[in-house]
Specification:
This protein has 268 residues and is mainly alpha-helical. The chain has a domain at 54-238: MetI-like fold, CATH 1.10.3720. It contains 12 helices and no strands.
């Protein structure tokens, strides 16, 4: 009886926490299909989704957001993978120190990184005469995405059998071929996870973008913030719903891929 009571209480507590966390999102999703402009239900409609795709400002911000996220994830994945391989080549305290330093951008508050990057770009702008905008936001996103790639690739490097690389060299591959056909192949699950995580964080970022965007650039997060300061249009509910669904799909892909990888490793 005690175990049953404990199990019922645990389930109730978890259900309560989930309701507390996701009830605002559920209200937002339901409201996005509301025909009226307020939270009062006036009938099912896709009107605000249609209005969303007619808004040139939001569409422009969406294009900026997606291109920044894709480019930042791509370059961060390359740099992060190279950094992880370099860190793994160190031994002892040097590797631990360098790895801890690479994790600082993850631990430090976003506002610290945003302000520091803004000051850096303002200083360089005065020297080279350029304004903050698309390029500065892209560089900023690459900077805070690289540590996430390193975090995903390093565990794969530590589990990789070094003798596989040596065997590839013995079987006729040169170092370049062995690196891409063996090392990169073994690291690919971690590389993909790092890319998807970088894409998600870049898509979601507001604070760093806000400090490094300048006056002429807008992405979705800063565009929504600007709209909220004036008046909350119902199209924001539709936009937020689409973003939420996109993030959920990405997270499902990551989790499914990780589970398959665990099954393969357990099978081996």
């Amino acid at each position: 009886m005690t175990k049953k009571k404990g199990g019922v209480f645990t389930k109730f507590y978890i259900a309560l926490i989930l309701i507390f966390l996701y009830s605002p999102i559920a209200v937002m999703i339901i409201t996005s299909f509301n025909k009226g402009k307020t939270v009062v239900w006036k009938g099912f409609s896709l009107k605000w989704y249609g209005e969303l795709f007619k808004d040139k400002a939001i569409l422009g911000a969406l294009v900026n957001t997606l291109t920044i996220a894709l480019l930042a994830s791509f370059f961060a994945t390359i740099l992060g993978t190279m950094a992880a391989i370099g860190i793994n080549n160190f031994r002892g305290k040097k590797r631990a120190v360098i790895q801890n330093v690479s994790n600082i951008p993850i631990i430090s508050p976003d506002i610290v990184m945003g302000v520091s990057l803004m000051l850096l770009f303002a200083f360089l702008g005065n020297i080279f005469n350029f304004e903050m905008g698309y390029v500065t936001v892209l560089i900023s996103h690459i900077c805070f995405c690289v540590p996430f790639v390193v975090l995903n690739v390093i565990p794969r490097l530590r589990r990789m059998d070094q003798s596989i690389y040596d065997a590839a060299l013995d079987l006729g591959c040169n170092q370049f071929q062995a690196f891409f056909k063996v090392v990169i192949h073994e690291l690919m699950p971690g590389i993909i996870s790092g890319f998807l995580m970088s894409f998600t964080y870049s898509l979601d970022d507001f604070i760093i973008t806000h400090f490094t965007q300048g006056a002429k650039f807008q992405n979705l997060s800063t565009e929504i913030y600007a709209m909220l300061r004036r008046k909350i249009p119902p199209t924001i509910n539709a936009l937020s719903t689409l973003l939420f669904v996109t993030i959920i799909i990405i997270m499902i892909i990551i989790n499914v891929r990780d589970r398959r990888e665990e099954k393969r490793n357990s099978g081996r």
